[in-house]
User: Which sequence fits this backbone?
């Protein structure tokens, strides 16, 4: 009975597995690729040391993304569309149903089979990825490996493009906001000049002050003339009356001109010069701040564009897609030994259980 159970549980399964592996299992050829994500950046000297850790972490993050992308359904669908994975992996299904893909496999089944035939190893410390692609033909394995590398490069380029757009997008928004604000303030200043019909109130005030100085000089001259006439003429002299009238007119004009500077004055458009000048200074200060803000935003945009151009990611292959000359899979001897190991372990456990139960009875 012990010998019969050994033949039934160990010899027969191992023989069946060996027969299938050597008679029906198709050879599987491999193509290996080794690559990493490189990020070239020319940092400024002042920030060289501090940026080294950032470059390393960014490269590791890109490698993590690429690792998941290789195992994703999206890449499987693209590979199936480009190379016909279902037909490629199911061509031997009639003779080798165990190691082949069934022709009517769903996309989920194809992804599972893909992850079995495409093995990715990733060293997080160095960011190196090693890829082993299996196929029933060495050329097919090499084609799949090349396609994975090509799609990975396209994905990394897309990440670089998105990163560059993110770097410059906010700078462009700030520049647009500063430009709109500056344009609005300039329009306000233009409307102010059209309303007051004054380009620069400071120039108008200087002219007004010149008029007052001239009136003051005329008033001084008239007062001197009045003093001279008072000594040389009698009361009621027409010349004396004429000078007094001129003095009164000059003083009235001086008062009117000075009132234009005070509160309630009617210098221009019902406003006094102080209010007009205050409004002009406010608009001028707003324009200066807006121009400084616009210049800063424009400088930031130029810096951002320069930084975006200096940063680039690319996929660097240190081992190109290889072309196999001999089959590596299935590993027949290893599979037979594993089958023998598990079978004999199971048979031994069952035998021990049987003898234990018999001894207890």
Assistant:
């Amino acid at each position: 009975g012990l010998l019969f159970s050994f033949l039934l549980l160990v010899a027969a399964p191992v023989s069946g597995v060996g027969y299938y592996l050597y008679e029906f299992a198709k050879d599987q050829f491999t193509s290996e690729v080794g690559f990493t994500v490189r990020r070239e950046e020319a940092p400024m000297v002042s920030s060289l040391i501090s940026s080294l850790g950032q470059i390393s972490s960014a490269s590791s993050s890109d490698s993590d993304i690429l690792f998941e992308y290789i195992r994703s359904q999206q890449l499987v669908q693209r590979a199936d569309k480009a190379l016909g994975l279902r037909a490629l992996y199911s061509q031997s299904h009639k003779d080798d149903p165990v190691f082949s893909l069934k022709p009517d496999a769903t996309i989920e089944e194809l992804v599972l089979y893909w992850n079995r035939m495409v093995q990715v190893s990733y060293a997080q410390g160095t960011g190196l990825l090693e890829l082993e692609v299996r196929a029933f033909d060495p050329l097919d394995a090499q084609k799949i490996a090349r396609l994975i590398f090509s799609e990975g490069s396209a994905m990394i380029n897309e990440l670089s493009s998105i990163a560059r757009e993110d770097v410059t997008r906010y700078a462009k928004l700030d520049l647009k906001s500063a430009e709109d604000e500056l344009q609005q303030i300039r329009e306000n200043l233009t409307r102010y000049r059209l309303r007051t019909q004054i380009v620069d109130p400071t120039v108008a005030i200087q002219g007004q002050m010149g008029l007052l100085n001239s009136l003051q000089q005329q008033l001084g001259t008239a007062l001197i003339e009045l003093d001279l006439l008072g000594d040389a003429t009698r009361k009621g002299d027409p010349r004396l009356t004429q000078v007094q009238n001129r003095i009164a007119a000059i003083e009235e004009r001086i008062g009117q001109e000075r009132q234009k500077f005070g509160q309630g004055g009617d210098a221009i458009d019902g406003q006094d010069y102080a209010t007009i000048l205050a409004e002009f200074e406010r608009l001028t200060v707003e324009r200066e701040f807006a121009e400084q803000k616009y210049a800063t935003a424009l400088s930031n945009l130029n810096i951002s564009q320069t930084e975006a151009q200096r940063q680039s990611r690319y996929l660097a292959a240190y081992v190109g897609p290889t072309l196999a000359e001999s089959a590596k899979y299935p590993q027949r001897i290893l599979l037979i030994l594993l089958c023998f190991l598990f079978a004999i372990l199971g048979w031994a456990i069952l035998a021990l259980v049987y003898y234990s139960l018999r001894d207890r009875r």
